[in-house]
Amino acid sequence: MSVVVNGRVERRDVEPRLLLVHLLRDELGLTGTHWGCDTSNCGACVVLKDGRPIKSCTTLAVMCEGAEIRTVESLEVNGQ
To answer: Considering the entire predicted model, what is its pTM?
Structure first.
């Protein structure tokens, strides 16, 4: 699959059942997105997909093919 994460094109072979939160944290090392409550209620996993908020703990990574994903790491400016 191919996805743009924080402005960078990422191409990965992923399992069809891989959740977006695991792609971000485990494959891409973007640990600002958290797996929080196991019920999708807390919002710790929210990222922007094409500018709209989604819960990455209930979204399959393959559902984001061709999308632009922004995580909390994209808010960093000059190391801050």
So the answer is: 0.92
**Whole-number pLDDT of residue 40:** 83
d(CA 60, CA 21): 9
pLDDT of 76 over the 90 cut: no
Cβ-count burial 1-25 (b if 16+ within 10 Å, e if not): bebebbeeeeeeebeeebbbbbbbb
Residue 71 has pLDDT above 80, yes or no: yes
With H, G, I as helix, E, B as strand and everything else as coil, classify residue 80. Answer: coil
